[in-house]
Amino acid sequence: MANRFFTFNKTVAATGTQEPLSATPLRVAVAIIQTLRTNTGYITVGAIDTDYATNVGVNLGVPVADSTPPSIVFRSTREANEVDLAKFYIDAETNGDGVSVACLEA
């Protein structure tokens, strides 16, 4: 059986408030997380302590016109054959900014 491919967007309602990529466990084999082209500020991705203001997490930067937006890839390993997106958080410099997530089901 083929793995299902799916996408979704996640935005941050208020800067300084970390938000999980998924409110419930969402286990995937691969996830590509890319900043939205409409973002006007920086996006930070990481664990529950991700914080744009204190520079905790991976800073994806701001999209530049006519170029591919910054992105990061998470994939399963031999030891852990899935990645749970509920354990990854985003924070934003600007309210309403966010990420697009493309996933391959585990």
Features:
about 110 residues; mainly beta; 9 strands; single chain; 5-stranded antiparallel β-sheet; Jelly Rolls; about 0% helix
Low-confidence stretches: none
Helix percent band:
under 10%
Specify the biggest β-sheet. Answer: 5 strands, antiparallel
Q: Please state the overall shape, judged from the principal axes of the Cα atoms.
A: globular
CATH class: Mainly Beta
Helix count, DSSP H or I runs of 4 or more residues: 0
Number of domains: 1
As a whole number of angstroms, the C-alpha radius of gyration is: 13 Å
In the CATH hierarchy, the architecture is: Sandwich
What pattern of helices and strands is seen along the backbone? EEEEEEEEE
Brief account:
The chain is built from no helices and 9 strands. With 106 residues, it is mainly beta.
Q: What would your notes on this structure say?
A:
This protein is mainly beta. It is 0% helix and 42% strand. It has no helices and nine strands. The chain has strands at 5-11, 19-20, 27-35, 43-46, 58-61, 71-75, 83-84, 89-92, 98-105. 26% of the residues are buried. The model has no long low-confidence stretch (mean pLDDT 89).
Element layout with pairings:
Layout: E1 5-11, E2 19-20, E3 27-35, E4 43-46, E5 58-61, E6 71-75, E7 83-84, E8 89-92, E9 98-105
Antiparallel strand pairs: 1-9, 2-8, 3-6, 3-7, 3-9, 4-5, 4-8
